[in-house]
């Protein structure tokens, strides 16, 4: 076991961090539970830590932690603990059992906190009329159809005819293309609404029969509002900047008029002083002072003119930025709409091809009468053999049924593939 590391100072914040660390270990197993029961061949990742309140440290039980596999007997073989029953239990229950065993073995005052994660689920097995029957790794959301695809699809007949597999592949492609087409139709409706400046997004006629049309339209409507709000905020920011600059120009114009009046007065005073100086009535000092005053006013006028010119240039730039923003907005919408139309056209061709392949696969089969034209699916049966702790049971399923780790999928094709 690793030597405990003391927390310097043992501040309250540090205790909270350590507590959060241990809570994280517990939360890991709790988050993975979800009612999942462990079984033979499940690979688990185990970590164990123990909080030491006396010296404010966390003791890592590295000798116990690591990756373990549930053995044929349904038990885990752990250092110090020995065989620990795991089959049929949740990761959280196993984690609690590890903590209790360690506390009991070592007479610990505090219960060690264990984390049990499923590193790799036990595999599923494909049998029957599949191209490559055998063992395959399990992944969450694995359906019967996906598992059959992992096994290479349906098995060819001895004569090499691949009616069932070709039909299933074409049917799957058709479903994918149809889903993608619905998404593109919703996107096109949103782009057309943005081009038209509409505030709301209606369901297009092409999506009336799509089962997920409301969700697609709601998603696109949210995106449209977000993009419109951002665009209008940018326009408002430019309008506010232009208004501020125009106010600055007006203020500078008023300052210019004031400075011009002061310059006129200063110039007249300077001329008078110049004549009086020539006549010897006043001194040169007053004339020089007035000359400096006049020059200062002229410099101030130049600065005001420069600032006014800069503000007018900024107004012109803001106007150009607004024009560019509007043009970019319209150009981007037009480009996206054009790309969407091209994708829809491509998907339409792919969808047509898939449907033709499905029709051809049916036409080439001597057992086409076994195909149900109403349900549009081949007569293929799927059965799952599953052990839930009370012995193995067979359950009839369809291709969309979600599998569980350790399931055995039996595929039976009732098509006579010539």
Automatic annotation (TrEMBL):
- Polysaccharide export protein N-terminal domain span: 31-118
The record's annotation in InterPro entries points to: HH_AprE-like, Poly_export, Poly_export_N
Coiled-coil intervals, chain numbering? 228-255
- Gene3D superfamilies associated with the record: wza like domain (3.30.1950.10)
The UniProt entry, under Pfam families, shows: HH_AprE, Poly_export
**Signal peptide (UniProt feature, chain positions):** 1-31
In its UniProt record, a GO molecular function of this protein is:
polysaccharide transmembrane transporter activity
Instruction: Give the AprE-like long alpha-helical hairpin domain ranges.
Output: 176-355
Keyword annotations of the record:
Coiled coil, Signal
Supply the name of the protein. Sugar ABC transporter substrate-binding protein
The species this protein was found in: Rhizobium deserti
């Amino acid at each position: 076991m690793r030597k405990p590391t003391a927390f310097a100072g043992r501040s309250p914040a540090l205790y909270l961090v350590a507590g959060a660390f241990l809570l994280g270990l517990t939360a890991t197993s709790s988050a993975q539970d979800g009612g999942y029961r462990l079984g033979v061949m499940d690979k688990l990742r185990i970590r164990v830590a123990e909080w030491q309140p006396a010296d404010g440290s966390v003791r890592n039980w590295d000798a116990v932690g690591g990756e373990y596999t549930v053995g044929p007997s349904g038990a885990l073989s752990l250092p110090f603990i020995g065989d620990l029953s795991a089959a049929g239990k949740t990761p959280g229950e196993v984690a609690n059992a590890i903590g209790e065993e360690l506390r009991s073995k070592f007479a610990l005052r505090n219960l060690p906190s264990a984390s049990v994660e499923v590193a790799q689920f036990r595999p599923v097995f494909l049998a029957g009329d599949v191209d490559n029957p055998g063992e395959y790794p399990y992944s969450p959301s694995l359906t019967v159809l996906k598992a059959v695809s992992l096994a290479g699809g349906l098995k060819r007949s001895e004569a090499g005819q691949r009616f069932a597999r070709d039909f299933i592949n074409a049917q799957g492609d058709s479903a994918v293309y149809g889903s993608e087409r619905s998404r593109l139709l919703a996107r096109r409706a949103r782009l057309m609404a943005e081009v038209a400046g509409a505030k709301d997004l209606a369901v297009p006629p092409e999506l009336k029969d799509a089962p997920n049309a409301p969700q697609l339209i709601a998603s696109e409507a949210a995106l449209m509002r977000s993009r419109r709000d951002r665009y209008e905020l940018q326009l408002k920011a430019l309008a506010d900047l232009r208004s501020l600059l125009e106010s600055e120009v007006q203020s500078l114009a008023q300052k210019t008029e004031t400075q011009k009046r002061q310059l006129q007065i200063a110039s007249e005073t300077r001329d008078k002083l110049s004549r009086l100086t020539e006549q010897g009535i006043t001194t040169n000092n007053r004339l020089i002072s007035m000359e400096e005053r006049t020059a200062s006013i002229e410099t101030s006028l130049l600065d005001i003119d420069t600032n006014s010119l800069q503000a007018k240039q900024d107004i012109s730039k803001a106007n150009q930025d607004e024009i560019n923003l509007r043009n970019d907005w319209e150009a981007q919408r037009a480009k996206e709409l054009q790309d969407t139309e091209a994708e829809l056209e491509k998907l339409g061709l792919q969808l047509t091809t898939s449907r033709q392949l499905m029709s051809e696969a049916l036409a080439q089969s001597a057992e086409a009468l076994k195909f149900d034209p109403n349900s549009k699916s081949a007569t293929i049966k799927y059965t799952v053999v599953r052990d839930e702790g009370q012995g193995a049971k067979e359950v009839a399923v369809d291709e969309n049924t979600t599998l569980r780790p350790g399931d055995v999928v039996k595929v039976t094709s009732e098509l006579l593939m010539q």
